[in-house]
Write a structure and sequence with these properties.
Blueprint: H1 4-19, E1 37-43, H2 51-63, E2 68-72, H3 93-106, E3 109-112, H4 121-124, H5 147-164, E4 169-171, H6 184-193, H7 195-212, E5 216-220, H8 222-226, E6 239-243, H9 255-260, E7 264-268, E8 270-272, H10 283-299, E9 304-309, E10 316-320, E11 326-331, H11 342-351, H12 360-372, H13 376-386, E12 393-394, E13 397-398, H14 404-420, H15 427-453, H16 463-488, H17 494-504, H18 506-516
Parallel strand pairs: 1-2, 1-9, 2-3, 4-5, 5-6, 6-7, 7-9, 8-9
Antiparallel strand pairs: 10-11, 12-13
Helix pairs in contact: 2-3, 5-7, 6-7, 10-11, 12-13, 13-14, 14-15, 15-16, 16-17, 16-18
């Protein structure tokens, strides 16, 4: 039987539960617990930062209060037994050790991210691993039924990572495994035991490898939330990351059910994700994502947050030889380099320490004041620029506007206001925004020509006119290339800066060559 004091405690608890709001827009949040992990994710699949730039980034993250860095090394890691995986931009073992030691000195723990089922094109492109492919042509995923051979591979890779990383965790990926149940062996298991069991049996083997090395496995949560039936079979040490880039809560599945099983969750908003590319950044969505998701994650009892930053979508195009041997692969989508996104990193750092939702407009105006020396009026102009509609042109028309000209006219109003702003300090950082704006206009100019070329009334006689328009665009591209290199020299490798410039203007050159044949 409850005594008087316990009854009072019970009534107080009930009162708190009834009055606590779980509205993500509430002015206060239910829990004042701090996130144990205040993390940042760095994607090095493309746009590989120099060792010096990595250390500078770590310095800035440390100043912002970040204590964890999740490194998606992919082919930039200097593997030993599987050196074939490492690409031409891979770091030396000493560079990796120096970087991690630098992070340690700043109080930042470095978690390696080693994809172990999906997003493994960089592994399966090498013929050494042909037996592990789920599909001969779509080489994004390993076959979970080839578990013994995969176990040997990842035991080697994890052991290699443990030699250089002293974090308590290894991130094992596990997201977007769209080919689950694709091959004949997998189809048979799905028929007998279900797709959930196919996924969990394989990932259980991967998690046990990590645990055997004295580490805790961290895993993206999307697939286990779609197929939760066998989740209880995974070790309770497994930590799931709920990546939410602005969609409804429980987008992938019922998170509380997995929490009830005893699993720990971290959250993950994003600063570079779809539809971001070279020509648009959806700033408004990213700020809103931080404003809404971070307070929710705190209320939901998530123990950590990791801000993701994707240089590419992780989808690739291939040049094939016979029998689908890979000659080369190239990413489908690029984003602007991380050098242009300090403002979103800073807003995230503030948002994870606030007990109330961050106010993006107020933050940006204050950031513009402290970082660039702007007054409130100019800070508001900067904020309005960031709110520009991230409208891309697909299948010959803008997504929302009537024409490319209309998109450009609306955008140029905001761009012209941005160009007039004169920062008193950190000019190079602000010039990244100006370059982004000009790259967008360059993109729209090209799309206007491409639409004319693909119009039903296009004839050969119009080719010279369009070629002249492309001449202007290509001349403009040369200036943009120079600005891109000047702003990012030392951040990315010189050869990669040249590659990025070449890829960005490739479509223009392709159209130019086709039109030149029609003259």
């Amino acid at each position: 039987m409850m005594n008087y004091k316990n009854i009072l405690k019970y009534l107080l608890l009930v009162s708190v539960m009834l009055t606590t709001s779980f509205n993500i827009n509430a002015q206060t949040v239910a829990s004042t617990e701090d996130f144990k992990v205040k993390g940042f994710h760095l994607d090095l699949r493309i746009q590989v930062m120099t060792p010096e730039a990595l250390k500078t980034l770590a310095d800035e993250l440390s100043e912002m209060g970040i204590n964890t860095l999740v490194m998606e090394w992919e082919g930039t890691y200097p593997y030993d037994k599987h050196a074939v995986i490492s690409n031409k931009y891979s770091y030396t073992p000493q560079e990796v050790k120096d970087f991690i030691a630098h992070c340690d000195s700043l109080g930042i723990k470095v978690i390696p991210l080693q994809q172990s089922l999906g997003h493994v094109e960089y592994i399966l492109r090498n013929s050494r691993y042909n037996n592990l492919k789920e599909d001969r042509k779509d080489i994004s995923q390993l076959c979970p039924m080839e578990a013994m051979e995969s176990k040997a591979l990842f035991k080697d890779l994890f052991s290699d990572l443990v030699k250089t990383h002293n974090s308590d965790y290894i991130h094992i990926g596990g997201d977007e495994t769209y080919l689950l149940g694709h091959c004949e062996k997998c189809q048979l298991k799905v028929k007998e035991e279900g797709k959930s069991k196919l996924f969990v049996d394989y990932m259980k083997m991967i998690t046990e490898l990590v645990i055997d090395l004295g580490k805790k496995p961290v895993m993206w949560a999307d697939i286990i939330l779609k197929h939760p039936e066998a989740a209880a079979d995974l070790p309770k040490e497994t930590i799931f990351i709920d990546w939410n880039y602005g969609w409804r809560i429980n987008h992938f599945g019922d998170i509380p059910k997995l929490q009830e099983l005893g699993f720990t969750f971290w959250g993950a908003p994003a600063i570079r994700s779809h539809p971001d590319n070279w020509y648009v950044t959806d700033w408004a969505t990213h700020f809103k994502n931080q404003k809404e998701f971070i307070p929710y994650a705190r209320e939901a009892g998530y123990e950590g947050m990791v801000l993701t930053s994707w240089s590419t979508s992780g989808v690739y195009g291939f040049t094939w030889d016979v029998n689908y041997d890979v000659v080369d692969m190239v990413q489908i989508r690029n984003t602007y380099p991380l050098s242009g996104f300090r403002i979103l990193m800073a807003s995230y750092a503030e948002a994870i320490n606030l007990k109330t939702p961050i106010k993006p407009e107020d933050f940006v105006i204050e950031y513009a004041k402290d970082r660039f020396g702007f007054n409130k009026k100019d800070g508001l102009k900067f904020w309005n620029f960031l709110l520009a509609e991230p409208e891309l042109v697909s299948y010959g028309k803008p997504a929302k506007s009537e024409s490319v000209a209309a998109v450009k006219a609306k955008y140029n109003v905001l761009r012209d206001e941005l160009v007039k702003l004169k920062p008193k300090r950190h000019e190079a950082e602000f010039n990244q925004f100006k370059l982004m704006a000009d790259l967008r206009v360059h993109y729209l100019d090209f799309k206007a020509v491409d639409i004319k070329y693909n119009a039903p009334d296009f004839t050969r006689s119009q080719a010279p006119i369009l070629l002249k328009e492309l001449d202007v665009i290509l001349e403009d591209a040369k200036q943009l290339d120079k600005r891109f290199i000047a702003l990012n020299k030392g951040f990315l490798y010189d050869a990669e800066l040249e590659e990025q410039n070449k890829l960005r203007v490739q479509a223009v050159h392709t159209l130019y060559d086709r039109l030149a044949k029609l003259k």
